[in-house]
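Worked example

This section walks through a single chain of length 453. The input is the sequence exactly as stored; nothing has been trimmed or padded.
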Amino acid sequence: MSLFSRPKAWLCLTLLVGALTSSAAMAQSDELGSLREAREAAQARDQERLQSFLEDQDGLEAALEEARAAHESAEEEQAALEAQQAEQSEQAQALAQRQEEQGEALTSLLADLARHSEEIRNELGGDSWLTLEADALPPRLNDVDVLERSQIEAVVDSLATLTVNTGRAERLELPVADASGDIASHSVVRLGDFAAFTESALLRKGQDEESSLAEVPRTPTAISDLLAAYHQGESREFAIDPTQGSVLEALAQQPTLWERFQQGGYVGYVVVVLGGIGLLVALAQYIYLLTVSARVRRQRQNLDQPSKDNPLGRVLERFKEMDKHQTPEALEARLDEAVLAELPKIERGQPIVKLLAAIAPLLGLLGTVTGMIVTFQAITVFGTGDPQLMAGGISQALVTTVLGLVTAVPLLFAQTALSSRSRFITQVIEGEASATLADHLEAQSTLSGQTVN
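Given that input, the structure is written out below as tokens.
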């Protein structure tokens, strides 16, 4: 840049700075003007409000009366607080004086009573049967500053009452919740701190706030009988659980026969249904065989007059209708045919009973396999940390095996009884038929010999 051009640059820069300075001054003057206008507007509004208040004398008097009432109320409250403070100060001085009078001995006694009372309440408050009545526990003395005679008497009386009740059997009328949750008043017998029971069930501390007692679910039958006899005064025997309910709880959790049956699942249902069908078939057939045996027995006493209501009579009737001029072999074959025609009715039902007796253990084995599958699936998902998760599958496996064996054994006995009874009837029919044929052949041979002579 040349020397001639530098004055022009300085001139331009000077003009630019001057322009900026003038614009800033103008903006500042505008802001000052707007602030002045706002202040003047606020003063005008205040003047208007003050003028309106001065013109409204009634409103001013009402506001003044309200302020005076609030002031009087505050003064009264202050006076009451001061009086209360003075009364509390007097009580504090009286307490301090009484504490000084009772000395260290009574102070330590109060501390001991408070500690022992709290320990007894904590020990007996939740599970003890001695606390069924109201105010059975000693009073709390934690918040007591000065020991009173009445407080000492209350603690001593409550401790004496608890001690006496530990060796007493009492009958009380108390609300009891049954298994369905209904609450009703029952006659409750309390045996010290050991147990409490109604006429039919043992009791436990209820979880419902409206009832302090609840029946133990599924009280064992033997214990229920003892409870009823003891409650009615017919017996002095009673079952005591030295574990404070653990043994009774374990006995109550034992499943019933129906619950064990339900643990078998669908396989167990199938096994029992098939076993029931087999037993019904066996029973019906055995009754039929007994009836046939009685009729065959009557028929054997009168062979000359065969009856068609029994298989022996039908075989003899068939033999009478045969052509007696046939060869002995032909007669024997016809007689065997008549005997074989009676066997299906006599042996009816035995194949299905035998089949079901063979299938029942196999179905039990099937339930065992499915139960173990369920068990291993539970182990795969949840691991072996909780045995209860595997109990369902193991129960199914064992129960179905038991059901299969229990079903097969009676069916085998039934099949054996049917087989022996039918075999006996068949032997009787075959024997009488053979004897009849032999008599006929002997008579025919004798008659032929007489004819020859």
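What to look for: The two ends are 184 Å apart (CA to CA).
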